[in-house]
């Protein structure tokens, strides 16, 4: 007969086995739906370019990775930096960081305002913040055209106020893309900031004022440190989709001010260079992973609370 300890160990193993069996369908779906496509992209990135916009299966080549940042001259085959790709990478990172900063500057006071309202009012304000998510991203982006085009809301208002003598060109520029992405991703910054501020002990803020601290010192020494997890979470939620944005740069940039998402689509479409497109996709994923590791590292520090 089995001892009590052996019986308990067998029961534990059976329980673990049953859990794995129950989770097996979900794990298979995750593997084929998430890990599978990434594995395909990784394989494509190390294969030779096909003759008709595909890849030559099992003919391995490093040309895809080589073309991410370098190129060879078509006349003398000399090695040079791919200025176009470097510029697109730089523009993508610059606009993503600028979008994160703008949404933070707009979202922080918005979240603070909502957190300081009554409980019933908070629900209404949060409802208003989530309304843009009800509309398709493409429709919201086209709506932004009516705001920033030469005859749009901004230029019309500035002309009537006499602040400008001619419309300011914002469409098909980096400024237009920045406006569009800031509008699209602003709720992603407000919601985690509000989640952190909702748990903020405002008695500490009142204590800071009682000790004759200025508003700036209270903000810098009390509020910001306590809502730091929300700031980091919101920044990651905005930075990552901004970095891989496709629709907004395509519509508001006019195809001339490309970002990484547009460059990847170009390689899989008109460029007919799948290995290069796959290599750029993996590079983009690596940048995203670095951003996520930064968030995890900061959020897991002692005393840090998730927003």
Characterization of this structure:
This protein is mainly alpha-helical and 307 residues long. It folds into two domains: 4-80, no CATH class; 82-300, MetI-like fold (Orthogonal Bundle). Helix content is 71%, strand content 5%. The chain is built from 13 helices and four strands. Strand 3 (70-72) and strand 4 form a beta hairpin. Helix 5 (137-148) crosses helix 7 (174-198) and helix 7 runs antiparallel to helix 11 (247-253). The longest helix has 42 residues, at 4-45. The protein is flat. The chain starts with a helix and ends in an 8-residue tail after the last helix. 28% of the residues are buried.
CATH H-level superfamily title of the largest domain: MetI-like
- Per CATH, the class of the largest domain reads Mainly Alpha
Lateral arrangement of strands in the main beta sheet: 1-2
N-to-C series of helices and strands? HEEHEEHHHHHHHHHHH
Q: What is the second-level CATH architecture of the largest domain?
A: Orthogonal Bundle
The tally of strands reads: 4
Output the number of helix runs.
13
Keywords:
307 residues; mainly alpha; MetI-like fold; 2 domains; two-stranded antiparallel ribbon; 13 helices; 71% helix; 5% strand
Task: Describe the protein's topology.
Layout: H1 4-45, E1 47-49, E2 55-60, H2 63-69, E3 70-72, E4 79-81, H3 83-115, H4 119-130, H5 137-148, H6 153-160, H7 174-198, H8 202-210, H9 215-226, H10 228-243, H11 247-253, H12 260-268, H13 274-299
Antiparallel strand pairs: 1-2, 3-4
Helix pairs in contact: 1-13, 2-13, 3-7, 3-10, 5-7, 5-11, 7-10, 7-11, 8-9, 10-13, 12-13
């Amino acid at each position: 007969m089995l001892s009590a300890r052996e019986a308990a160990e067998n029961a534990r193993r059976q329980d673990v086995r049953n859990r794995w069996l129950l989770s097996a369908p979900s794990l298979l779906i995750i593997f084929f739906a998430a890990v599978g496509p990434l594995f395909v992209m990784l394989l494509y990135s190390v294969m030779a370019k096909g003759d008709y916009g595909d890849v030559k299966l099992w003919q391995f080549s490093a040309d895809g990775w080589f073309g991410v940042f370098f190129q060879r001259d078509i006349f003398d085959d000399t090695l040079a930096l791919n200025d176009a790709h470097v510029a697109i990478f730089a523009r993508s990172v610059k606009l993503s960081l600028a979008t994160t900063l703008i949404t933070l500057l707009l979202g922080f006071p918005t979240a603070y305002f909502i957190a300081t309202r009554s409980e019933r009012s908070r629900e209404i304000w949060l409802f208003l913040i989530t309304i843009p998510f009800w509309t398709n991203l493409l429709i919201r982006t086209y709506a932004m055209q009516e705001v920033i085009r030469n005859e749009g809301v901004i230029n019309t208002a500035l002309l009537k106020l006499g602040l400008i003598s001619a419309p300011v060109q914002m469409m098909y520029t980096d400024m237009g893309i920045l406006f569009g992405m800031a509008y699209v991703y602003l709720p992603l910054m407000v919601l985690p900031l509000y989640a952190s501020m909702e748990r903020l002990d405002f008695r500490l803020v009142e204590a800071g004022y009682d000790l004759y601290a200025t508003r700036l010192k209270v903000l810098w020494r009390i509020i910001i440190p306590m809502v730091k997890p929300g700031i980091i979470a919101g920044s990651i939620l905005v930075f990552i989709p901004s970095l891989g944005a496709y629709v907004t740069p395509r519509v508001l940039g006019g195809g001339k001010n490309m970002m990484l998402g547009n460059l990847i689509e170009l390689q899989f479409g008109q460029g007919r260079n799948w290995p290069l497109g796959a290599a750029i996709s993996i590079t983009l994923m690596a940048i995203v992973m670095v951003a996520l590791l930064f968030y995890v590292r900061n959020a897991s520090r002692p005393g840090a609370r998730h927003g």
